[in-house]
Structures are given as C-alpha cells and as structure tokens.
Specification:
The protein is α+β, with helices and mostly antiparallel strands and 202 residues long. It is built from 5 helices and 5 strands, in the order αβαββββααα.
C-alpha cells in the first residue's frame, strides 16, 4: 500500500574524474579512489532500491496463489470481515472465509482474495462472494487492509495479479457458486435486487 510500491528506478550516473597530465601520481590515485567510492555508493543505493521489490511477483509461476499460508495477512483479513459484518446492518455474518494471497510488487505488500459466504439477515441461503484486498505490513506490527486503493501503481499491481489464471479460476468458481445460490432461492434473489436498488438510489 498500495502509499507505496513504485516502478523501476534508473541507475545513478557516475562521472569519472580525468587526471590532467603533469599532476603527480598521488593526486591521480586520490581522484580514482574518490570516483571508485562514488561508484560503489551508487551501486549500493541502487541495490537497496532493487531489493525492495518482490522478485518474480508478476508471473504466476513464481507468485502462485497461496491458500491461508500467510498467517498474519489471513488474520488481518478475517478481522476486516468481522468488523465489516458488525458495521453492515443487512449482513448477519461472513461464513466459510478462506483467504488466498499473492505477493505484491513491493516487499511487505500482498494482494488478498477472500472467498466467503455472506449471510443476509432473514435469508436462509448465503451468498458466495470473493473480495479483493490490498494488504500492507505495518512497521509497528500487524497489517493494513484496504478494499480500495488510489495509487496507480498499486492498482496496476492488483490488475496484473487478478489476470493470473489461478485467480481467474477462483473468480469463475465463485461466480458459478453465486449463480447456483441465486437460482435456488427466490427470497435471496429478491433480497439482492432490493439491496441493489437501495445502493442505486443512495
């Protein structure tokens, strides 16, 4: 978060100090040491910048979808949905919550996909759903969970990961379960239609 994770950084440009003819060798050596020191410093700075990235984050093969394997992230997402259920009047509970994660572009960031069954008050059949969340580790411990991000590069990161085949499969499975639930319960369909109308009018 992302607030966070930016694109590539250009390497520092190093200027080499030329030693004029006629100067003593000691001065020339001092100039080389100074230049070498600048070069090493620039290389170290660039290495630090590069080290903030999660290597291979863009590819599904090197950044697979993990099911509940990042404990701190899963706990933070579970807390988020617990609070969300308490704050939303029409939602009774989020059941069967399962958190899937992928590494974000920057170290300490994740994109979480939360699969759940949302139980609406006074409706028997729960609603299958899948939430996408941007998660950032906090320096003081714990994680910041964001359902929306404004940072363009964080959004680009989410879009890239959501385009992975394993995530597409998860979305498709959830969509299928959603359609089955709606078709099996007329009261659920009616409740969802009323909910949609309420949001459109607000």
């Amino acid at each position: 978060m992302e607030r966070r994770q930016k694109g590539g950084f250009p390497a520092g440009r190093i200027r080499t100090v030329a030693v004029m003819a006629g100067l003593v060798l000691v001065v020339g050596a001092a100039g080389w040491i100074l230049t070498e020191d600048k070069t090493q410093k620039a290389q170290m700075t660039n290495a630090v910048v590069q080290d903030t990235k999660n290597p291979g984050w863009e590819a599904m093969e090197t950044n697979p979808l993990l099911a509940g394997e990042v404990g701190e992230v899963s706990a933070a997402v579970e807390d988020y949905y617990r609070t969300l259920g308490d704050e939303t009047g029409f939602v009774e509970d989020y059941e069967n919550l399962k958190v899937y994660t992928k590494l974000g572009k920057e170290k300490g960031t994740y994109v979480a996909f939360a699969r759940y069954d949302m139980r609406i008050r006074d409706v028997y059949t729960p609603v299958p759903g899948l939430g996408t969340l941007y998660v950032t580790e906090k320096k003081e411990g714990g994680c910041l969970v964001e359902p929306e991000v404004d940072d363009p590069e964080a959004l680009a990161c989410v879009e890239t990961l959501a385009g992975h085949e394993d995530v597409k499969t998860l979305f498709q499975e959830t969509e299928t379960a959603y359609q089955q639930a709606v078709q099996s319960d007329a009261l659920l369909l009616e409740a969802l239609q009323e909910l949609q109308e309420t949001y459109e009018d607000s």
